Amino acid sequence: MSLFSTLNTGYSGLSASELATSVTGQNISNANNDYYTRQRIVTSASTPLSVSPGSVGTGVTVTSIERIHDEFVYQRLKDSSNQLSYNQYSQQTLEEIAGYFPDLQGSGISQDLSNYFNAWNDVTTNASDASQKVSLVQSAVTLSANISNTRDQLRTLQDSLNDQVKANINEINTLGQQIADLNKSIATAESVSGNNANDLRDQRDNLELNLSKLLDIAVFKGNVSTQNIIDSNATDQGNDYNINIAGNSFVDGPTFRPLVAENVSNQSNYYSVYSVSQDGTKANLTDKISGGKLGAILDIRGRTFDTTSQGGFPSDGVLQDYIDKLDSFANTLITQTNTIYAQSASTSMTTPAQENLDANTILVNTDKHINTGSFDVVMYDNAGTEVGRKTITIDGTTTMDDNSISDSIVKQINAPTDNNHDNNNTNDINSKFTAQYNGSTFSLTPTSSNVSGAYKISIEDNGTNFPGTIGINQFFSGTNAKDIKVNDVYEENPASVQGYKAPIDGNNDVANAMVQLQYDNVNFYGSNNTITQEQLSGYYGAITTEIASDGEQAGNNVDTSNALFQTVQTEFQSISGVSTDQELTNLIKFQAAYGANAKVITTIDQMLTTLLGIKT
Fold this sequence. Notes:
The chain is of the alpha+beta class. It is 47% helix and 19% strand. The chain contains 14 helices and 21 strands. It has helices at 3-29, 71-98, 109-125, 130-189, 198-214, 292-301, 318-341, 409-414, 429-432, 466-470, 488-492, 509-517, 536-576, 580-615, and strands at residues 39-45, 49-50, 55-56, 60-67, 218-227, 231-245, 248-252, 255-256, 259-263, 271-276, 282-284, 349-350, 373-381, 386-394, 433-437, 442-446, 455-461, 476-477, 485-486, 522-525, 531-534. The strands form eight sheets. A four-stranded antiparallel β-sheet has the order 5-6-7-8, covered by helices on one side. Strands 9-10-11 form a three-stranded antiparallel β-sheet, with helices on one face. The longest helix is centred in the N-terminal third of the chain and has 60 residues, at 130-189. The protein is rod-shaped, with a radius of gyration of 40 Å. The mean pLDDT is 90.
């Protein structure tokens, strides 16, 4: 073996130490990069020379530069990050919702409801006092406005979440495209045998982690193996790479298939999420996407839609559940108030236009929650004396005014009967008032024999909900939290509010019934056809309690998932993170090796000088 071969041996050690120092410097410079994976060089002895009396080494060979990475720990990091992102966004949104219901701080709709009933209680002391009526109307306006405004806030938030669906899909697609581009770059870089695209793989891992914060993804890497010569952890190798979202391919090597957010119908601005295959076939993923920020948005906004209604609003989701319950509360408040107020005798009665209620529609089959049973039409004279009462029955066939049915509402009211049992057919209800349904509006109006208004009419319900649900002689207009409002007549002229049943001074029956309403258990009809019996304040209190409970649970979930994330991140950093102390130790070691190899080269140089001197 010649001195020149020995010189090459020293040079190989010098080069290896120089490369190791460079890799160490790279690690140190990325010590504060949370998702940088530290690297190590892999070396082996060069092929020896076979000489007598034995083999002689020829130095060292750098076989590769490997990153210290555990794919299984990294998968747990993505999973915990996905869950933490879901819980954090849920908590943030639920806390915002809770701010719309400040009832726990002694204000809000609960207090408005109490003020409303207190105002009715004040009216009971003097039903003809105009100032008490003004206060009542003001309380009712405040209550109805706050109910409506709260619902509007919930719907506005729902719309905002819908906009975020589109924004998050755009971000997801950007990350997917970047990952596909990196896959192409990794394949190109690693087409050279032994070349590992470590930094590119780190970039891809970081994009994967960011993607997992947005939604749950399934990542398949074709070659996950261990290299115990450097590290016992399993790391990804090779170029086989695929990301699936809800079972649909999103990234396949360098190929990227974007997600698409499209309106669910021409009548709706709400987005559904689709995966589009190569042949253009769309798969709806809206109800399949889970986890991450997008999963939280969809769970709160809603995933399915009522495409038959104007607006195409969600029919599920946390927010829609709150909206539905607030609607149910408002609907019951409207119906029960109007049912009581229909007892107040008036010269005539009429309803607003009815939606989806044809003259021949069976009443108990509608969505108006009209029950079988009966109600009484009551007639008073000017002295406040009841001079007629007719019981109207609602059964499984009753309609508003079907010509083919004899027991329709209109026919029963207009039927000639001796209501006051005096054998005089000129002073009965049907002779003083006429019922009419024109396909939209129901009315009770005076006949020609009652044009002077000598008689007044009222309706007393016996459990059918009919007068309140159709809104005859209504105090509140509207059907739910969206459109609840004090009747314009009373808002413009509060003095016209009637607290009596019989039209005489001193009769406070309606006002008393309104006060009693706050203590009565009444029916609340859910969107899923459930019926809950509760007091008005109790039902609304259950809504606010649920919202507070959901927010508290979301906070607990954040604490739990954050603890898990911190644990996994610590484990990830212990494997892949950079320890400056360790790297500085390595730096000293490689520096010493570099100096030693330089000494070998210097020694060989001196030996060559001596040898050349002998020849001369």
